[in-house]
Specification:
27% helix; Quinone Oxidoreductase, Chain A, domain 1; single chain; alpha/beta; Rossmann fold
Amino acid sequence: MKRTMKAVLKAKPSPGFEIKEIPIPQVGYGDLLVKVRRAAICGTDSHIWSWDEWSQKRIKPPITIGHEFCGDVVEVGPGVTGFSVGDFVSAESHIPCGTCYQCRNDQQHICGNLKILGVDTDGCYAEYVRLPAVCAWKNPKDMDVNVAAVQEPLGNSVYCVSEGDVVGKSVAVFGCGPAGMFATAVSKASSAYPVISVIKHEFRRKIMKELGADYIINKNEDVKKLVMDVTQGVGVDVVLEMTGSQEAIDVGLSVVRKGGRFVAFGIPSGAVKMALAEGVIFKGVNITGINGRLMYKTWFTMQGLLRSGRLNPKPVITHTYPMEKINEAMEKMKSPDRSVGKIVLLPFGS
C-alpha cells in the first residue's frame, strides 16, 4: 500500500476546504483502516466549510473533514474481533469512551467524553479513514453504496421516529432538509398515518411526494389550520421537529395534541422561547431530545426497515460529486433555494 493519500482538510481557520496529500492513517489498538467507497455531506460539514461561529469554537485545524461514509476494511488493528479485511462497513460517527457513567448505562450515544468523527478526529473525506471498530457497522456485500453511505444521518431520523412511537398515529414533520425528508420516509415505513410534511423549500415538495407524505404544506401557509382540519380538531399525536427554528417549535407545540409527543432533533442557532405552560404542561406533552443514534439499537431497527423494502431513502439523494470537487458541492448545498437533497461524494480518482 502507498504511504500517502488525498484528503479534504480544514487546513486553516478560514472559509473553504483544501485538498492535500497527507500520510495514510496508522491503525492502533481497536482500530480498522477503511478505504472510502462513498461519503456524504452533512450540515455539520457545511458549518465547518463556512467557518461559522460554532466551527471557530469547536474545530482545530488542520483536520480531515467528514463523518458520513461507507467503505471496505483493508486493515484490522490489534484487539479487534468480529471484523475482517474485505468487510463492507458504514460508520457510527459518535466515538464513545466506553468507561464513563453514560457508556456504562447503555447510553454510549451521549457519552460523557464523546468525540465525533471528522469533528474531533480525522474524518472520511479522504482515500482512507481510521475508524474505531466500536463504531463500525457491517453491511451486506450487495448493499447499495449510496444508501450505505447515508445510514448515519438516516439513523438520526430512525431514532426520532422510534422515540415518537408512531405506528398508526398522526405525525407532523417540521423540516425538509435531509433529516426531515428521512423522517417522513421512516414515518411512512413505520405505518404512521397521516404524515404531514411542513416544508420551506419548494424544490423538495416533489421529493416528499416520492417519500409518501400524505399532506405537504409550506411553512408560510396556515399550517395549524391544515393540521387541525386533518385531525378533526384534535392535533397530531406526534411532532418531529427537525429544524431548530423558533417558528417551527412554536407551531409544533400549537398543533401537537393533548398528551402527545414532541420529538426535538433540530439544533437552534441560539436560545429559544417556549410556551411551557400552554404548550407543554397544561397539554401534558412529552418532549424527547434526540442526539445521534442509539448504539446499536437504532442501527438494527434501520437495518430491518431497509431490508423489508418499506424504507427507501434513495429519493433524498439528488446529487453526486467527485471528492475533488468538494468546494463546488458545498456551494451547491448552500444554494439559496436549496435545490438539492442529500449530496453523495464519489471517492478520489473515480
